[in-house]
Amino acid sequence: MRKFNSILIANRGEIAVRVIKTAQSLGYRTIAVYSEADTSALHVRMADEAVLIGAAPVQQSYLDMAKILAAAKETGAEAIHPGYGFLSENADFARACEDAGIVFIGPSADAIDLMGNKAAAKRRMIAANVPCVPGYEDKDQSDETLIAAAREIGFPIMVKAAAGGGGRGMRLVHEEKTLADAIASARSEAQNAFGSDELILEKAIVEPRHVEVQVFADSFGNVVHLGERDCSVQRRHQKVVEEAPCPVMTPELREKMGEAAVEAARSINYRGAGTVEFLLDAENNFYFLEMNTRLQVEHPVTEMVTGLDLVALQIKVSEGEPLGIEQQEVKLQGHAIEVRLYAEDTAQDFLPCTGQITTWQAAEGDGVRFDVGVDSGQEISPFYDPMIAKVIAYGESREVARHRLIEALKNTVIFGLTTNRGFLIDILNEEVFARGEATTAFIGDLFDGDRLVAKTPNLSEMAMAAVLLYQVERDRAKASAVFVSDKLIDWSSGGELLTRYVFASGDEKVDVTVSPKRNGGYNVMVGETELFLEVKERNGNKAQLTVDGNRKRVHYESMSDGVLELTDVGKTLRFTNEIAFPLSATAAAGNGQVTAPMHGTLLEVFVKAGDTVEVGARLAVLEAMKMQHDILAEVSGVVQNVIATAASQVSVDDLLFEIEAPE
């Protein structure tokens, strides 16, 4: 441990921005690293210095230890903060920093090594008398041994990557006949994601809560916990909503879980920020799940209820200072809830989305915090996690925090790509969540396919879109004209002025006609329904309108004629005037042409030319944005052409397979 004056942040996005803000506020010189895809990223512009470390793929940039250490040497960085993800839990990187004489702002390499392997970590926790889920965590990895162990444990079973996290390499198995396939697929995903195919088995706890305890330790043997976070609202084992404190926590249970977490950290001589994760069942029994040896994505909710800056504490401890906090001094006040705003299409099985954020404006409000690493004009790259921002709200009570968070999501302006904002608002509005009763089964039970279909516009939204698009196009035409009087706006010498639009509403096409009235306002025919609209105010991308006398506040954006995005109470819709943009003759889904849904790497290809396939058959596995996606056949037939090859990079809409359906 030694004092330092400069910190290199070996990360990107919102966590890099988050660390830079605290480090700069404490007077440290900050150095960013960036890939070619992040040349204009916010963290690059915020840091005091920035170093290009390679091409966009993470293996050539953010995961390249040699390049990051070279950047530290070049800039004279005395310490490295790894953020989360990437190299944050890489013991070799922590050792390399130490060997280079650079302070690693995190735990020791030995602690990372031990807790980075679920099997070894669980064995150590059992020895430390920390409650653990019954399971199998030994070294024999043969299928026969795993299947026999599963029989002994009893179904349902969780198959987990020993070196994994974030839901990758994890499978829930309800009966033995599907176990062998689950083991094979979990091994494959674990090997590709973590470089290790070692697995563990655990008894599946039915509908538990996922509750984690934030711990902090210094180099003098002082260990405290900073309360718990409830992270039960998950999709495919990835957290979506986090909050502090846990809605069902009692002082007695907090004391027990806190003591177990502190003992877990103390048993491995831990230093710095760490999180001990538990499963909590309906009878308030809790079981050790894993320990994350880094700062968590959801750390802001702990900061908001404790008043502590966890990054500042990390820096303090890494400089060899004592923690300076006694357990009895930690007080939890109020409630905080965080959601993860992603670029993803919930109606397309949460498919990650790429593209440019044309407009970004975070909402303002009491108790609202945005941890964000993007701004207007920035690209969401296919090479990285598609998280745009973390939105956090604090309140004196859980209900105040919940309402503030809903309003913050509704009033945030984001255009250019599809996000999960509507899904997050639906979660926060759901009665089960409002009552504080959500378990890890919450999303699976309440958000099936019917609730995740694409939102269709209603009559009012189509009318508002048509009027706003009319005004935007009118103003563009006037700006490009010469000597046009304002008196001629919305006037026609040929009688009533009619402007027609055709919008899609689900599978239907709806005619919308806008007719300006001489006394102001517009008559709008939406199909067979007539509405009267007035535009009360239009400023930037905000508008106030009345629809048949009902006042509406919306955000909108039109980057080109014929296209408009409209956000109404958190629901974002894209309108394209199909008169201006008639449907092209491109192949429709289900015609046998299988294309890549996004940029990524093809890990496996399962078919060859001449194979007969049924609808839903797995054709290939595509890895993109840290997840594996199955490429499935949309028609039954014979595979005529296989363009896809394993281990190759593909771009969105690249043709992968051609299937000829029988006549």
List keywords for this structure.
8-stranded antiparallel beta sheet, Rudment_hybrid_motif, Dna Ligase, domain 1, 6 domains, PreATP-grasp_dom_sf, 16 helices, 33% strand, 663 residues, 25% helix, ATP-binding, ATP binding, Rossmann fold, D-amino Acid Aminotransferase, Chain A, domain 1, alpha+beta
Blueprint of the fold:
Elements: E1 6-9, H1 13-25, E2 29-35, H2 42-46, E3 49-54, H3 65-75, E4 79-81, H4 91-99, E5 103-104, H5 109-115, H6 118-127, E6 135-136, H7 143-153, E7 157-161, E8 170-173, H8 179-194, E9 199-203, E10 209-217, E11 223-235, E12 238-244, H9 251-266, E13 272-280, E14 286-292, H10 299-306, H11 310-318, E15 335-342, E16 344-345, E17 351-352, E18 355-356, E19 359-361, E20 368-372, E21 379-380, E22 387-395, H12 398-411, E23 413-415, H13 421-429, H14 431-434, H15 442-446, H16 459-480, E24 499-505, E25 508-516, E26 522-526, E27 529-539, E28 542-547, E29 550-560, E30 563-568, E31 571-576, E32 593-595, E33 600-605, E34 612-613, E35 618-624, E36 627-632, E37 637-642, E38 649-650, E39 655-660
Parallel strand pairs: 1-2, 1-4, 2-3, 4-5
Antiparallel strand pairs: 6-9, 7-8, 7-9, 10-11, 10-13, 11-12, 12-15, 13-14, 15-22, 16-17, 18-21, 19-23, 20-22, 24-25, 25-26, 26-27, 27-28, 28-29, 29-30, 30-31, 32-39, 33-35, 33-38, 34-37, 35-36, 37-39
Helix pairs in contact: 4-5, 12-13
How is the biggest beta sheet arranged? Answer: 8 strands, antiparallel
Spans of at least 5 consecutive residues with low confidence: 583-589
Fraction of residues in helices? 25-40%
Q: How would you state the average pLDDT, rounded?
A: 91
Strand content: 25-35%
**CATH homologous superfamily designation of the largest domain:** ATP-grasp fold, B domain
Q: How many domains, as an integer? A: 6
- Which class of secondary structure composition applies to the elements? alpha+beta
Which fold name is given in CATH as the topology of the largest domain? Answer: D-amino Acid Aminotransferase, Chain A, domain 1
Gap between N and C termini: 73 Å
CATH-scheme architecture of the largest domain: 2-Layer Sandwich
Task: Specify Rg, calculated over alpha carbons.
Answer: 27 Å
Count of DSSP H/I helices: 16
Q: What best-fitting shape do the alpha-carbon axes yield? A: globular
**DSSP summary, beta strand count:** 39
How do the strands line up in the largest sheet? Answer: 14-13-10-11-12-15-22-20
- CATH class term of the largest domain: Alpha Beta
Domain Lipoyl-binding: 584-660
GO molecular function, one term: metal ion binding
Cofactor: biotin
Protein name: Acetyl-CoA carboxylase biotin carboxylase subunit
